[in-house]
Amino acid sequence: MTAPTAPATPSTPSAPADPRISTRRNTELALIFAAMVIVLAYSAAVEDALIGRVTARFWLIPALLTLVFVAAHIIVRMLTPYADPAILPCVALLNGLGVAFLRRLDLGEVDTANRAHYGAFAGLGFRQLLWTLVSIVVAAVALAIVRDHRVLSRYAYTLGFVGLVLMMIPAVLPSSLSSINGAKLWIKFGGFFQIQPGEFAKLLLLSFFAYYLVRKREVLSLASRRFLGIDFPRGRDLGPVLVVWVLSLLVLIFEKDLGTALLYFGMFVVTLYIATERVSWLIIGLLLFIGGAFLANELGATVGGPFANFHERVEIWLHPFSDATGAGYQLVQSLLGLGTGGLFGAGPGAGQPGNVPFVNNDFIFAGIGEESGLFGLTALLVVYLIITVRGLRAAIAVRDSFGKLMAGGLAFTLGLQVFVIVGGVTKLIPLTGQTTPFLSAGGSSLMANWLLIGLLLRISDASRRPVNSSPMPPGQPQRLAGMTTEIIR
Amino acid sequence: MNAPLRRVGVVALVLFGLLFLNLNWVQAYKANAYRTDPHNSRTQLTEYQRQRGQIAVSGGQVIVAQSVATGDELKFQRAYPLGAEYAPFVGYKPVSGLATGVEQAENDFLSGNAPELFADRIKEMFGNKSTGGNILLTIDKKVQDQAYNDVVHNRSGAKNAAAVVLDPSTGAVLGLASTPSYNPTPLVSHDTKTADNAYEQLNADPDKPLLNKATQETFSPGSTMKVIDSAAALATGQYTPQTVIPAGASYTPIPGGTFTMHNAEASTCPDPNITLIQALTVSCNTAFAQLGVKLGSAQIKSMAQAFGFEDDGLSLGRDGHGSGLGVVASHTGDMTDANGQDDPNYVAQSSIGQLNVRMTPMEGALIAATVANDGKQMRPYLVDKAQAPDLTSAYTASPKVLRTPINNQVAGDLQQMMESVVQSGTGTRAKIDGFQVGGKTGTAQNAADDGDHGWFIGFVMKDNRPIAAVAVFLEHAGTGGSGEAARIAGDLMKTVISEKGIK
């Protein structure tokens, strides 16, 4: 790569003079409305299937969602006016469909006769709507505070430390305060409220990774030995990746969660690769992970103990139908639901998603798949892919290394999380307790993912902003920008 | 850093591509398998929206399975008014899991999803409430009652027993009893726990109540095997019923060997020679053992096979198809030594239905029916008619010759020999005045202390026209078991005679 020397390197084509054309905010607004029309149609179809008619109030939730997302749009207009116009509508569509599907689950729980009178402001669906509102407010506050993403690199060590602590808390806490369904990923406050600190930790850790790698990438990429035509790093430079590997394995062992481990490790390896441009890191990372997973599985089969849970999950993955009414029940029901849905699905509201345990959470993709079919799920995957690719485009377009790593890592992490959970639910990989971004019920996940989107919008804004209209307060940028050059050769 | 970022984009594309391909596998390629998987209660919930058809016997007059409306989410409850008596072949249709018996074999028709009922589905789309199709069985209620009561209350005290009654000229199953049976009601409970518990309990029962003993289990046939031996001998053309064959009080297949066989009683056939007909009449073990060894295992096996042994594809369902009503194969087993040559000890024992020979009661009834029907074995069937909800017929069974193991001449000789058994031999308890009754008893030895199995296979004819063929099996019945089996068989034949109104 060409080592960027200054943030001012014009890597985007020169921006048009008129900002009203370049921001494309009206496109964003139109796309949000289009997304909300889909949610509205979906809600109507759900009521028709579950109640037998469309009630007079079916538009209430979609209308509230529209208000919330238009508010988000206005915030974007004010705080990140040059951000990519495709990201927010895609997120709005996913989040809106998630709320509508959760409301559909609420209706399904109620007796047929009482469904027509089921309040609009009740149940999981409305709760999720409130969480959406709170998440957007939090993301907006974050955007208002972080006016330039490079500010984050100044607090990298603090953020990294906090991230580490957040990640470790559930592992250290007793199971009664941290374990839900076998995965120790939570901090429970009493019986009614819990947060998943790992969702936030990944953002904080990524900030640290990005900062660390920007500083170290010359060393990591230049000092190497060539083997089989691939440049391999020196032994002592393997340190950081090994530390993260061990950390991930510890997560796997103590939090009993392959998904989170895979997520942290994948996030680190990919940012390492982006920073150093060395394919060898990807190979080393992949081998380490496969080796680690294999080892954990073998240990689980022989030694048991902390590895037993992982081994059991692998067994369920390999032979879900061998204990279809016991251990394999979730996955079997998920597959049966998806299969019953087939190509076109049963139609919104016409399936039996209630048969799949945790369909409001980890298994939401299976529930939606039963009713929307292969075509519906493919559409959802494409929406996720658009967000990921747009995020990577922001990374390519942004001028500073920290921003590139940050945006690349954020975008890839989002895609990877979708892969981990959807792959688990559809039996591509062993099932792990991850949420489906923006769809699953749950405040932590929603808020963390909105923060992620906020950061992406911030970086995207920086990447598309005309060079002459810098948002940086005077005095700050030059010192930060200079950091890429303090490399020890 | 832009080049690796682009490659990361490619990686993301690959990951999503994998998800997409896997979704195609799950939702397109495997969709049908998952949709119809027994663990999938979704299709069942839909199934319960429509009233499932009835299963009836005695020409549709007696209902043995029906669906009753409930107020629940599952709108209909399956009910079996006659319970355990019919359960072994009617089966049951649980909320989740596989149906069995007729409920399984005719599931599509009963549920209304069969292609024949397509017109009803179209009508349903225009708001006509519709039900599944109805199935009529060949069973005659009086015959069935008699068969079930007789095997349940057999005087030998056998816990496990079965009886089969066939119409030899058509193959229609008139009665099919198996005990111990089970109560299907808890198995079809809408409460999953009740249903699961009931199943677990029945499945763990060592007497296997969930298996139909007449069609799904095989047992040593004992002396009933001698009918096959006789058929094999007569079919060679070198034997007639009057042919004199070696007998004796004992027989040592390998001269000087350690294995020697005897007859049931010392008085059975002590003379060194006996006619074939007399050998069958008194059930002479030594005569049939020697006959078997002389004919060779190949002859015995091929005649057994011609009568339906080794056939694992037989079903009592529509046109001989339909899982749920399958009949397991009867076997003659191995009779050769390590070099592949006939082992006289093995052939001798197999010829009297011991060693590795195993037979279903259904196969026993088929042998008798074939003899009575002049050598033509009719395909046995249980499903008589399938009726659409508007009572138009979608299927009517047509009798079909399944195989012809023996010709007219041999069949006539066998009729004569088997009638002699009932007239003056071991099967006199099956006698019916004014009718030609033929049969063969069987007493099968098995593991040391358990009592012998009692068998009777036989037929009743009038004016050389077959009326019924019967097989009765009493497991571990002990002494007198075959006599009790013959008595039950006679009772069943009488019931068929009165049901058919033959004077």
Automatic annotation (TrEMBL), chain A:
Q: Where is this region: Disordered?
A: 1-20
Q: How does it sit in the membrane?
A: Multi-pass membrane protein
Amino acid composition bias (Low complexity), ranges on this chain? 1-17
Name where it mostly resides.
Answer: membrane
What are the transmembrane regions? 29-46, 58-79, 125-146, 155-173, 193-214, 235-254, 260-276, 281-300, 373-393, 405-426, 438-457
> What keywords tag this UniProt record?
Cell cycle, Cell division, Cell shape, Membrane, Transmembrane, Transmembrane helix
Gene Ontology CC, one term: cell division site
A GO biological process of this protein is: regulation of cell shape
Task: Identify the Pfam families for this entry.
Answer: FTSW_RODA_SPOVE
Nucleus as UniProt keyword: no
Among the GO molecular function terms of this UniProt record, one is: lipid-linked peptidoglycan transporter activity
Q: Where in the cell is it found?
A: Membrane
Q: Which InterPro entries match?
A: FtsW/RodA
Q: Cross-referenced PANTHER family, in alphabetical order?
A: CELL CYCLE PROTEIN, PEPTIDOGLYCAN GLYCOSYLTRANSFERASE RODA
Please state what the protein is called. Cell division protein FtsW
Query: What organism is this sequence from?
Result: Rugosimonospora africana
Instruction: Give the source lineage, highest ranks first.
Output: Bacteria, Bacillati, Actinomycetota, Actinomycetes, Micromonosporales
TrEMBL record, chain B:
| Lineage: superkingdom | Bacteria
| MF terms in GO | penicillin binding; peptidoglycan L,D-transpeptidase activity
Xref: InterPro entries: Beta-lactam/transpept, Beta-lactam/transpept-like, PBPA_dimer, PCN-bd_Tpept
Segments forming domain Penicillin binding protein A dimerisation: 52-135
Any one Gene Ontology BP term: cell wall organization
The Gene Ontology CC terms held by the record are:
plasma membrane
- State a single Pfam family of this protein: PBP_dimer_2
Limits of the Penicillin-binding protein transpeptidase domain: 162-494
The name of this protein is Penicillin-binding protein A
Q: From what organism does this protein derive?
A: Rugosimonospora africana
